[in-house]
Each structure stands twice: as structure tokens, then as C-alpha cells.
Design a protein that fits this description.
This protein is mainly alpha-helical and 59 residues long. The chain is built from one helix and no strands.
């Protein structure tokens, strides 16, 4: 029942903070192990040829 006492593991922020810090450490470790070439952003922005209203007036 110590976890329910003020300042115990289940106090506001106690248990949740510990879990969040542990998860952050795990995810940070996974990210450090990743090959930078495999997680490289491959999206490319290409301009689209969008007709304008004035293009139709050039007939």
C-alpha cells in the first residue's frame, strides 16, 4: 500500500513519469540503432502544372 501513500509510486506524476521516461529511453535507443539511409525522407516536392484562368484567354 506504499504506492498509494502521498509521494508514492501512484502519486500524480510518479508512476506515469517513470513509465514515460522508460519508454523514451527505449525509443531513443532504437532510433540510435537505425541506419540513417533506411530512415531517410524520400518524399520529393515536384511542382504541378496547374492551368490558370488566364491560360484559357490566350486563344
Amino acid at each position: 500500500m506504499d504506492g498509494l501513500a502521498p509521494g508514492g509510486a501512484f502519486a500524480v506524476g510518479g508512476f506515469v513519469r517513470e513509465q514515460a521516461e522508460e519508454m523514451f529511453q527505449d525509443l531513443s535507443g532504437e532510433l540510435k540503432k537505425s541506419d540513417p539511409e533506411k530512415i531517410k525522407d524520400r518524399w520529393m516536392c515536384k511542382p504541378m502544372d496547374v492551368p490558370t484562368a488566364s491560360a484559357g484567354l490566350r486563344r
